[in-house]
UniProtKB/TrEMBL annotation:
GO molecular function, one term: dTDP-glucose 4,6-dehydratase activity
Keyword NAD found: yes
Protein encoded by which gene: rfbB
Keyword list, A-Z: Lyase, NAD
Residue ranges occupied by any NAD(P)-binding domain in the UniProt entry: 4-325
GO BP, one annotated term: nucleotide-sugar metabolic process
Keyword Lyase set for record: yes
Cofactor: NAD(+)
Organism: Methylomonas paludis
UniProt family annotation: Belongs to the NAD(P)-dependent epimerase/dehydratase family. dTDP-glucose dehydratase subfamily.
InterPro entries cross-referenced by the UniProt entry: dTDP_Gluc_deHydtase (IPR005888), NAD(P)-bd_dom (IPR016040), NAD(P)-bd_dom_sf (IPR036291), Sc_DH/Rdtase_CS (IPR020904)
Record-given protein name: dTDP-glucose 4,6-dehydratase
EC number(s) from the headed UniProt entry: 4.2.1.46
Amino acid sequence: MSILVTGGAGFIGSNFVLDWLALNDEPVINLDALTYAGNVQNLAALNGNEKHIFIKGDIGDSELVSSLLARHQPRAIVNFAAESHVDRSIYGPEDFIQTNIVGTFRLLEAVRGYWNTLPDEETRAKFRFLHVSTDEVYGSLSKDDPAFTENTRYEPNSPYSASKAASDHLVRAYHHTYGLPVLTTNCSNNYGPFHFPEKLIPLMIVNALAGKPLPVYGDGMQIRDWLYVKDHCSAIRRVLELGRVGETYNIGGWNEKPNIEIVNTVCTLLDELSGRADHKSYREQISYVTDRPGHDRRYAIDAGKIEKELNWKPDETFETGIRKTVQWYLDNQAWVENVQSGGYRDWVEKNYAERSL
Ligand code: NAD
Ligand code: DAU
């Protein structure tokens, strides 16, 4: 038996593949298009491991996906592959539509074709298609709203979240219409090793160490709900193993924090672990910049269902997870240098110009 993971060279996907192969004997077929966000270096620890079969390819390449499924006969698919960055979706939504919507559709079609060829009813019933999605599909909460549950109405606000919402609906439709045994997870903001330094936490660490400004969008009081990436991976494994077919599961760690608090925490940790030469705090580098267009004010996940039904809880608190993360970036500066891209940062700097509050 094996599982097929898509997007397994990205941030969460690579953590998932590394953890899976550390915990299981079951091989992983890893299909990743290696966009700017995909990095085989994340998987260097698996070099020479025969249980990791890496294929560079697109989830939208129906022929390739069908042939991989026929050859490897996986018992499950875990679909991480996506364009994942909200700012990029504002800059250029096309890739998000292509991969997140069209790509997911083609992947579902290929999987449906394969699933129909499985030898008997029992094998078909045991098969799983787990779609990894986001809390952003639920839209934005105000200060006093209760956290998102699995019954919260979808109200996506960015091209990214709209494309993920569309993919979630397709997955749901393939269950209701064709009986494909699907599971969907909607997770809050992840952080941890291999996080591409365009996202808030790694960007702040990397910019701080490089002596660059730490760009905080708007007033910095937007709230995100943070989960250490290894905890997201353990939740996905639990849903894959025990989740009820056709259900969705919210995943989160009950860690709501305003962005400015996150930035201050990163600065405090860096002050302790790798202080500035002039002994001033990295907080001096904080710079308030123009807000993200359509910026969602608050996300918060009610993780009660996965806790009660599947007995899942995160291992890390925010305090332990963020310390590990900052230390990981200090220990892996060569990785950071390799993934930084000039062109995109130029665009960000132009569009999020510094301003005074
Ligand atoms: P990422 O951008 O770091 O990685 C995405 C990976 O998918 C990359 O390796 C990329 O090469 C690959 N990919 C992109 N297009 C592809 C295609 N057409 N075919 C095959 N591979 C392709 O993203 P991430 O942060 O690891 O997120 C993974 C998944 O989890 C996404 O579906 C995202 O929506 C979801 N998610 C992310 C977070 C978060 O905080 N990062 C939270 C909740 C859900
Ligand atoms: O909520 C889950 C989502 O979390 C995932 O679905 C997305 O794939 C993932 O990228 C993440 O989206 P966000 O937009 O919340 O993440 P990002 O790190 O881009 O931004 C986090 C918050 O920090 C957000 O409110 C915007 C703000 N921000 C971000 C950057 C990059 C800044 O203030 N300054 C910045 O430079």
